[in-house]
What we know:
The protein is an alpha+beta fold. The protein is built from 4 helices and 7 strands, in the order αββββαβααββ. The mean pLDDT is 96.
Amino acid sequence: MNYRKEIGTEDNPLKLLTPPGTSEYTMHVAEKDGQDILVCTVGKTILHYDIRSIDDLYQMLKDHGDWMELGSKDEKVEARPDTVEFWARSSENPIGGWYGLKKNFRGRFAMYMPPLMEHLGLAEVTHNKRGNQMRAK
């Protein structure tokens, strides 16, 4: 699916809030090396995620069939099994590894992707201070 229209561009990015609702960030689609990628901007930090993660995450959540803990962690911190973050860096996911594309900024997938999935109408996300979860719609 072409997500460029729903997610936005560098000139008109989508504004989102982290699951706890404590931080605002933007997401847009850009092209890098001839491929569409997701660009997530948090303050001055810029993260890149493989755009295939949207469809892959949705399918994984559908197959899982229930709520799954987000478990967001920085790249250098080990993710807990059975969390969205663990899946997003696992050799068992459809791309065989990290959906994050920028070395040293590949983590936090489970912080920034769930609100995007919710915006796209693909998932439900809880919005507690801690221990948030998501499931496919």
